[in-house]
Amino acid sequence: MAIPDTLPATALPDARETGRAWLSPHARGMLALLVTVTIWAAFALSARALSSSSLLPADAALLRFGVPVLVLAPALWRRRRRIAAVRPAAAAKIICGAGVPFFLAAMYGGSLTSAAFVGSIVPGMVPLFVSALMVAGGRAAPRGTQVAGLALIAAGVVALVWRYVAPPDTGVLAGAGVLLVASGLWALYTVGLKEVDLDPVGSIGLLCLPSFTVMVLLVATGVLPTGIASAAPGDILLFLVVQGLGVGLCAGLLYAFAIRRLGAERSSVVGSLSPVAVVLLAVPLLHESPTLAVLIGVPLITAGVFLANRRPRPRSLSHPRAEVPADA
Q1: What pTM was computed for the model?
Q2: By C-alpha distance, which of 116, 108, 147 is closest to 308?
């Protein structure tokens, strides 16, 4: 929170010194990152909880994209020219990758599977998909520990779904497939973010403004049904806080802050704990009992994300380090 301009000048140093005494820059970055991981876990839990909620997917999407637009409206207006100047191809990657298609895929996939699947497959497969997109675009291929990490991620996903293959559980397998699509879309969003010159607030606006507009049109024309008028107030409040304020607003701002304080590599390593947090929180909140497949698959995915986000050491001073795919 900014210090009010009405404070006496002599009060400013004391207030700042008090802030430094409480938390160091490193500690503030770590706190921001831990809160972000918790929000990511809450997203996975809410994707699963939506199936038993009085809200419909369209209602959750309206809250997810509408709340940030409302809260950030003055700041987005000041950034309107920079947002409008983003190249259409990069804007499409961001809007499709984390907008309505991603959100509906994640919600639908979560309704068919479990919170552990959402929390593991969606963020866990992002480094693999980003690597594929980078190689397809002519960038350097992963090497060293990155290759091992991507292999562990793939093995973890296989471990999650193998028990549903024989005999086949078409519902869970379809849900896992939809979650893979959601992860691929998020990878597209990750690549798109690297192509735009916007601050975190501008990036949120570029994503949420068109996504909210699309959702309003889909609901107004009857393409997607809505039940928000008759939904339970507790469900509305839950999704408003988790999806609108948490995922839509706080996660993007806090993760950007954590990267500036801790660096991208350290932030991605701590962020790899998100699947573990989902599994642990799903036990008391959703009464999900971890299966053997989850106990094997989630650690493999977590370890894979950890390794995939490590920067390989340069072979010599003349060889610059390869760029590493970022995790969501």
Answers
A1: 0.81
A2: 147
